[in-house]
Amino acid sequence: MKWTKKKIVFTVFEIIFVAIVPSALVIVNYVSWGDGMTPFKISLGGILLLLLVYYIVKKTILNKYIERLKAMSAQHLADLKVEVDAEKKKRIREELRRERTIESLLSFVIPLLLLALFFVVCKTLESSMVKLSGTVGIIGASEIIGAVFSVLADREV
Predict the structure, then answer these.
(1) What b/e string do you get for 77-107 counting C-beta neighbours within 10 Å, with b at 16 or more?
(2) What's the rounded Cα separation, in Å, for the pair 81 and 92?
(3) pLDDT digit string, tens, across residues 70-119
(4) pLDDT, tens digit (0-9, with 9 covering 90-100), for 6-42
(5) Is residue 56 scored above 70 in pLDDT?
(6) What is the rounded CA–CA span in Å between residue 157 and residue 154?
(7) Residue 60 and residue 8: Cα distance in Å, rounded?
(8) For residue 84, which phi and psi values (nearest 5 degrees)?
(9) pLDDT of res. 126
(10) Phi first, then psi: what are they for 120, rounded to 5°?
């Protein structure tokens, strides 16, 4: 994959509109800063939205990385079958272990995220639906802009 200037710019804008803008919006709308030096506290609605933002980031950005890991794992398995040099086999095995470990950890994040999301949804529905729906609408618009930049980045070959 060739990284052109346009692809880099589009990818940066994708990350900004898919991850950074929605996270900042949640923090601005749902974090209470308290008096003096009291640490900030985030409401359950904010936690729900951060989980949703993370889920979207996982589905749009991390899944591309996971697919590349799977492809590299398959290539390393094929290389392992034909390689005769013991030192190279050892390096391939270590690389394969690392790739599979990262892939396994990333695949368990979503089920845990969904369980946490269901719990938080129940708590969130008890209060502040108007503020939540407005914030979700703005995050949705930001995600659409991020999707446009993602398509533009993927078209840069």
Answers:
(1) eeeeeebeeeeeeeebeebbeebeeebeeee
(2) 10
(3) 888 899 888 888 888 889 999 988 888 888 888 877 777 666 766 666 66
(4) 888 888 888 888 778 887 887 777 766 666 545 556 6
(5) yes
(6) 7
(7) 16
(8) -110, -25
(9) 60
(10) -70, -35
pLDDT at position 36 is 57
Contact (Cβ atoms closer than 8 angstroms) between residue 8 and residue 144: no
Number of residues assigned to the chain:
157
**Strand ranges (DSSP E) for 3-155?**
31-32, 41-42
At 61, the amino acid letter reads I
Listing DSSP states for 95-130 in one string gives: HHHHHHHHHHHHHHHHHHHHHHHHHHHHHHTTS-HH
Contacts of 107 (CB under 8 A, 6+ apart): 66
- Residue written as token pair 């929605």: 22
Ramachandran area for residue 35 (φ above 0: left; ψ -120 to 50: alpha; else beta): beta
Structure tokens at 39: 């640490």
Main-chain phi, psi angles of 6, to 5 degrees: -65, -45
Rounded to 5°, the CA angle 15-18-21 comes to 95
Would you tell me how many other CB atoms lie within 10 Å of the CB of residue 19? 19
Q: Domain ranges for the chain, please list them.
A: 5-155
